[in-house]
């Protein structure tokens, strides 16, 4: 299929969430189809790009991976400027990472210069659903969906960066909501 003549769109996506929830792993699985058990904390922020077809249109996702660790939180407003979507990630096995979603969500909106905060597109990922066959889960899907509903119907996906479960679907949704204002 020749898609070279079509208009290209660059979409900026910011990934936020507590340290260790799997932000880097999700991106590595999505872009490189790779997973590593080893934890290497992200310092500062870095991006990867991936081209993807959304409803017959070629878009480039520029996905910014950020550091969850407190001492690296100094990215600031300049970094978030021009974001088209914010992906929030928590670990379904660690309740605290779910509780802090409010902070990540509110901080992001505070730092962005978005004209209409209520309409800004977020997507929530509940990661590590593979762990212990789901037996060590601390946050139910119902609870996560209730939080999403309370925050203006945020799309929700349960994922495993390790097994690649739902990762492509989640980022396709990200690309769709990110391009909705184009
Ligand atoms: P920071 O960079 O500190 O913010 O952490 P992060 O959110 O980028 O987490 P990272 O992707 O580095 O993953 C942390 C640890 O969890 C690593 O040891 C990963 O191998 C592991 N991990 C990530 N995703 C999954 C998953 O879906 N399942 C399992 N079992 N382990 C995962
Ligand atoms: Mg990381």
Automatic annotation (TrEMBL):
It is found in: Cell membrane. Signal peptide: none annotated. It is a lipid-anchor. Its main location: membrane. Protein transport. Probably involved in vesicular traffic. Belongs to the small GTPase superfamily. Rab family. This is Ras-related protein Rab7. It comes from Cicer arietinum. The gene is LOC101514161.
